[in-house]
UniProtKB/TrEMBL annotation:
It catalyses: 3'-dephospho-CoA + ATP = ADP + CoA + H(+). The keyword Kinase applies. It is an enzyme of class 2 (transferase). Its EC number is 2.7.1.24. This is Dephospho-CoA kinase. ATP binds at residues 18-23. Keywords: ATP-binding, Coenzyme A biosynthesis, Cytoplasm, Kinase, Nucleotide-binding, Transferase. HAMAP family: Dephospho_CoA_kinase. It comes from Pseudomonas lundensis. GO terms for molecular function: kinase activity. It is found in: Cytoplasm. Catalyzes the phosphorylation of the 3'-hydroxyl group of dephosphocoenzyme A to form coenzyme A.
Length: 207
């Protein structure tokens, strides 16, 4: 059980699409750091049997459920894109639940610090719950190239996602640390290890 004095501090980890934040998070986890992914939390809160899914089905109708009772994300996305009011309704329902899910999961950390990985750390205001922010940064051409290799998507779609995410300047403005990931995976892992050793020397996330 953590005493208040040894409670882990929280590092927010973010970066644009194709920056390599997932690879960085995986290496932090391999080093023994407790990692919570905001995207995973967003999926957990709408699993069958959870109250949120029942409310979504009551509000939008059974069409947003698949035959096996899981949420049909595609159908829901179509509905909320067509009507901004519906998107606001959904966000009002889910955001507090996701926040609680993340907080509960972070509270289970036994490592000296824990990491909240979120592509929307800055836009969603989640950075306010962290003591320090690490931005994984990469040149835009490289972000596009990596995403095209990884996802079955078009360059136009990748550019649209880049536009929707916080501007690079905005992200970097909130950063305490910036890891420029413009090399190979080994170089990224070496940088993660360097930061990890530095973070272990910090109290409460600040030097």
């Amino acid at each position: 059980m953590n005493t208040a004095s040894s409670k882990p501090w929280i590092l927010g980890l973010t970066g644009g699409i194709g920056s390599g934040k997932s690879a960085a998070a995986e290496h932090f986890a391999a080093l023994g750091v407790h990692v919570v992914d905001a995207d995973h939390a967003a999926r957990w809160v709408v699993e069958p049997g959870r109250a949120a899914l029942k409310k979504i089905a009551e509000h939008f109708g059974a069409d947003v459920l698949q035959a096996d009772g899981q949420l049909d994300r595609g159908a829901l996305r179509t509905l909320i894109f067509a009507d901004p009011q519906q998107r606001l309704w959904l966000e009002a329902l889910l955001h507090p639940l996701i926040r609680d899910e993340i907080a509960q999961n972070l509270a289970q950390a036994t490592s000296p610090y824990a990491i909240l990985v979120s592509p929307l750390l800055v836009e969603s205001g989640q950075h306010a719950t962290t003591q320090r922010v690490l931005v994984i940064d990469a040149p835009q051409a490289l972000q596009i190239q990596r995403t095209l290799l990884r996802d079955n998507t078009s360059e136009d779609q990748v550019r649209a996602i880049l536009k929707a995410q916080a501007s690079r300047e905005e992200r970097l403005r909130h950063a305490d640390d910036v890891l420029v990931n413009d090399n190979d995976l080994k170089a990224l892992q070496t940088e993660v290890e360097r930061l990890h050793h530095y973070y272990l020397t910090l109290r409460g996330g600040q030097s």
